[in-house]
Amino acid sequence: MSNEAIREKIVLNRNIGRETTQVLLEGEMIVPDVKPDVALLLKTEAEVSFDKAEAAEGRALFAGQLHIRVLYAARGEGSSIHSMSANVPFDDFVNIEAVTRDMWAGIKSQLADASFSMANDRKLRYRVVLDVEATVEARVEHDVITTIADLPENRLKRTALTVNRTVECKDSRFVIKDDLPVPPGKPNIREILQVNVTIANKDIKVAGGRVNVSGELVVATLYRGDMDDSPLEFIEHELPFAGAIDVAGAQEGMFADVTLHVAEQFAQAKPDGDGEDRVLDMEAAIAAAVKLTSQSEVQVLEDAYCADKQLLITREAVRYPRPVCRNRSQCTVKEMVNLPPDCPAILQICHVTGTPVIDSIELSDGRVLAEGVIQADILYIAKGDTPLYHYEASIPFSQTIDARGTEAGMDAAIEQSLDHIGFNLLSETEVEVRFLLGLGAVVTDYAETGIITDITFVDIDRSVLDRMPGLVIYVVQKGDTLWSIAKRYNADLDELVALNEIENPDLIFPGQKLIVLKKICE
C-alpha cells in the first residue's frame, strides 16, 4: 500500500487590523458674488462621502468629500432666503501595522461634531470632526492536506470549515437623471434654494458577473415661487432607480455588501411644454462600494492513523472569520416632538430628515439588540420675524433582530437606513414624526483551528507493535470518541463497532466498557 498526502489550496480571509482616528476638516466658505450678504445663518448641514479606500504599506488610505449646505437670511432684503453649498475634498490615512498594498481596506465614519460661524457677512467658517474607523483584511492561500491516498476511510478524520471568502472589492458609480414635474397647485420655480437627495429601500441581488442595485431616490426640494408674495415652497419626489455594477466572479448565491451614497447632485429649473419653469432637471451620481463574498464549506483532514506507519503531522494554526447569520429587520420609530419656548412657532413644516446612529450592539442567544438614536431635523416656515427655522431632536430606538446561531462574544456589523419618513403637525409647537428604520445585521464568529500542511510516513518498529496488547478492555473517558479510541490502540473502527454491538457510533458514554482488538497490517 502506497500512502500519499493529497493537497488542495484553500483561501481564507484574515483580519489584519482595525484602527480608529479623528479627522479635523476646517476652512472658510466665501459667499458667491451673485449672492447677497449674510445677515443670519438659518440652517447649516455637513455630510461626508468617501471616494476611495485602499491599503498601502503600513496604513489604510482614504479620500472623500465634505458636502456643506447653508441656508441664510440676506442682509438688506427683508426676509429673503438664499443658499450656498460647497464640496471640499480631503484625504488622510490610518496607521495599521502589517498592512501591504495587496490587501483590502474599508472605511466607516461618523460625524462627531460640526460647527459654523460667520467671520463677516461674506465669509463663513466651518469646523467638522469625523470619527473614522479603518479595517484591513487579506486573502491568504493555504496548502492543505485533504486526504491520504490508499488509506481506509475509517482511519481518516475530516472536518468542515465554513468560511467567507472575499471575491472582490470594488468602487463604482452610476448616474440617475430624470425630469421631476412640479405638482399642480404649486407655483412655478423662481429659485431653487436647496435639494436634498437620499437613498431608501435599497435592494441588492447578485447575478452572473454583476451586482444589481435598486431602490428609491427621495428628492426633497426647497424653492422660492415666481410670485412676489410667494412663500417658500417644498416638494418631494420618490424616484425608483436600478443599476448594475460589473463585478468579475459574481455568481448567484454570493453575498454583496453594498454601501451607497449620493456623491454629487445637480438640479435646475427648466420649462415644461407650456414654457413655464415647472420641471426640476435632476441628476445624481450614486457612489457604490461593493464587497462581494462567497460562503463555502471546505473539507480538510483533521487527523489520521495507519496500521503499520507512524504519521508525523505538521499543523498550522489559523484564525478565520466564520459566517453565522445575516438578517434584516424593520421597525417604526415614532415620537412626539415638542418645541421649547425659545423656538418660533410652526406655520408650515417643509421637511423632516433623520440620521440613525447606533450607540450599542448587544449579542445574546439567537438575537442582536441594537440601540441608538435617530437625529431628526425638522425644517419649517416659522411664525414671526424668523422666516425659516429648524429644530433638532434625538429620538431613541431599540430593536431586536433575530439572528440564528448568534452568541455573546461574536462580532456584529449593522447597516442602518431610513426607508420612510412621515410627520403630522399637531399644533404650532408639537409635531409627530415617524421613521421606518431598516437594520441589516451580519454576525461573524472567529474560529481557530489547526490545518494539516504536511505528513511524513515513518515505518513503525515491528517489535513495538508486537509488545502492544492484542486485546484491551477499555473504559470510556469523558471526551472520548470511537475514532480516538481506535487510533490510540491501532484498531479498526468498523471492527470496534461490530465487536461491541454498538448501534450508534456517535453515541458512547463515560464508564462504558469496550473490547478493543489491535489491528496490524501484514
Outline the secondary-structure elements.
Elements: E1 4-30, E2 38-56, E3 59-74, E4 81-95, E5 104-120, E6 123-149, E7 156-181, E8 189-207, E9 210-225, E10 232-246, E11 255-271, E12 277-304, E13 309-338, E14 346-364, E15 367-382, E16 388-402, E17 411-427, E18 430-459, H1 462-467, E19 471-475, H2 482-488, H3 493-499, E20 513-517
Antiparallel strand pairs: 1-6, 2-3, 3-4, 5-6, 7-12, 8-9, 9-10, 11-12, 13-18, 14-15, 15-16, 17-18, 19-20
Strand order of the largest sheet: 1-6-5
Shape: elongated
Determine Rg (CA atoms, Å). 32 Å
Largest sheet: 3 strands, antiparallel
End-to-end CA span:
11 Å
Mean pLDDT: 91
What is the domain total for the residues? 4
Order of helices and strands: EEEEEEEEEEEEEEEEEEHEHHE
The fraction of residues assigned to DSSP E strands is: over 45%
Low-confidence stretches: none
Work out the number of β strands. 20
* Class by SSE composition: mainly beta
User: In DSSP terms, counting alpha (H) and pi (I) runs of 4 or more, how many helices?
Assistant: 3
Query: Could you estimate the helical fraction of the residues in percent?
Result: under 10%
